Amino acid sequence: MKQNRFWAWVVFLAGAAYFVVPLAATFEFSLRMRRDYYSFDSYASVFSDPAFQATFSYSVVIGLFAIVMGIVVVVPAVYFVRLRMPWLRPFMEFVTLLPLIIPAIILVYGYIRLYNSSSIIPFTGSALGTDILLVFAYVTLALPYTYRAVDTGMRTIDVQTLTEAAQIAGANTVQIITSIILPNILVAVLSGAFLTFAIVIGEFTIASLLNRPAFGPYLQNIGANRAYEPAALAIISFIITWGAMGMINVLGRFAPRTSARTD
Amino acid sequence: MAFLDVSKLTKSYGSNTVVKGVSFGFDKGEFISLLGPSGCGKTTILRMIAGFETPSSGTVMVDGQDITSLKPNQRQLGMVFQAYALFPNLNVGDNIGFGLKIAGVPAEERRARVVDMLKLIGLPGFETRYPYEMSGGQQQRVALARAIAPRPRMLLLDEPLSALDAKIRVSLREEIRAIQRELGITTVFVTHDQEEALSISDRIVVMNAGNIEQLGAPHDIYNTPKTRFVATFVGQLNNLDVTVADPVARTVSLDGQIITVPNLPAGISANAAMVLTVRPEVLSVGQRPGNDVTLNGTVEDVTFLGSVIRIRVKLGHNVVSLDTFNDQRAAPPQRGEVITVTLAGKDLLVLAN
Ligand SMILES: Nc1ncnc2c1ncn2[C@@H]1O[C@H](COP(=O)(O)OP(=O)(O)OP(=O)(O)O)[C@@H](O)[C@H]1O
Ligand SMILES: [Mg+2]
To answer: Count of CB atoms within 10 A of residue A26's CB?
Structure first.
């Protein structure tokens, strides 16, 4: 028994070290900007850089649009597949996995070919058009996560009966989705949203090739040209990503409660 | 013209026809039950009335309007589901007020209607509760209030009680009936429980395999079933093997005893074997005024059911069940005891197969 416990701890600590040591080392390094003693100078330098503020807010805005766009696309799609076309589910599962299989670089080269300034739909011809294209790309990248989050959320409610109950009370499809379905899967939708956000904040390939001033290319640029700031930025990105993940866990506590009772 | 008029309604799934040209008409304010065994098409008919299924052919008219091709949200009907189906994200007040809100009723009026509805279902002050904070019976009452709050033209109920415990099932069905009477709302109630259907309906549609077997008031269905299916599905039934004595005089021979019966199948000949059926409560232990047939038998089994005692008796080569009221001053008959059983020949049922 004691022996078991010992080896369990060894394995756990080895795993934890794999994770914690580089992180601690990065953190330690980020504090050494000033000679001889620790300081937060590198963080101060990062936060006061106007390019940091500009690229970070740009990515936040793009992220928020990607979240809204993802909800508008995914929630009705999952709803109709569950309600009317359950035979389409295996196909949906497959299609939504594609972004994990196909590298982002292929996606973005495809976009550039299809939507370049001399094409029929010249998205890349203007900054706004390119921003829209970037949002579309991020919705696609996040699809494997948002689709599964929303699908899991809908599994916990009786979509068909709730739909029928709302229909017979006079509600139309838009009213049903916005006032009944969406509020009941809100936790799942939000966890999909945080995942989308975490992906968008650090994404490099697409933003860089579309030449947009996003946070990912900024990170890359700093990493290539500075000494201590990249370490500080790595820690900041890590905190943002894990903050988003943590929110998903917190939200889990607000999942809808079952009301099935016979008494 | 009937208020609810269903005409030649048919529904097929592929080559499988589950509702086969069903027609019926009901008046305003009637409480109608669709009764039948599992899979006979009751739910399918109700869902076609609600608009959730499209009929393969046939029409549904409500109050003179053909609603066959309307969407469910255009039909102005109310429905209660087996699984309650309250909206989990809304509290009781918002659940009941949902249909009113959709219809654009102002908030003040909505709140007043919710208060009225909660009073009607005996849950005053429950506005701010959430569905998961209530028992199944309370949730189903809220579901009923939600269905009737927008004053629908008709109320549809699909086995609303079958997810509930036995005690609540009985008390809630009485409540549903009382509320229905008070509002005078035409109601279609689907059930596979014959006792439920008999106890609350004005009229019952007995269904079997997609067809109507019989349509009538509960006492008609029970006392004069038209087919063997109806007789066996609704209530208990005993079979008696007899031979025809005289087809013209309508007499049969039961273990040598000649009995006059209400009717005989057309064209049956003397000495033909046939089966008579009789309800348990028609048989009495000992003499009773009006009973003209006396049989002797041996008690095979006695089941004590509280106020009623069910006795199985072997009469010649037939075994029958009969019910007697419990008599607290006399012991129930013992197994093996020889008793006299009497009945009135006119209460025997001769059923087409
Ligand atoms: N969507 C469907 N596709 C194919 N067959 C169906 C469908 N819905 C119902 N059926 C079939 O139609 C028949 C009637 O079903 P229905 O639900 O009306 O029965 P019911 O009388 O309500 O039974 P129960 O008492 O079990 O609820 C059943 O045999 C069922 O298998
Ligand atoms: Mg059914």
So the answer is: 16
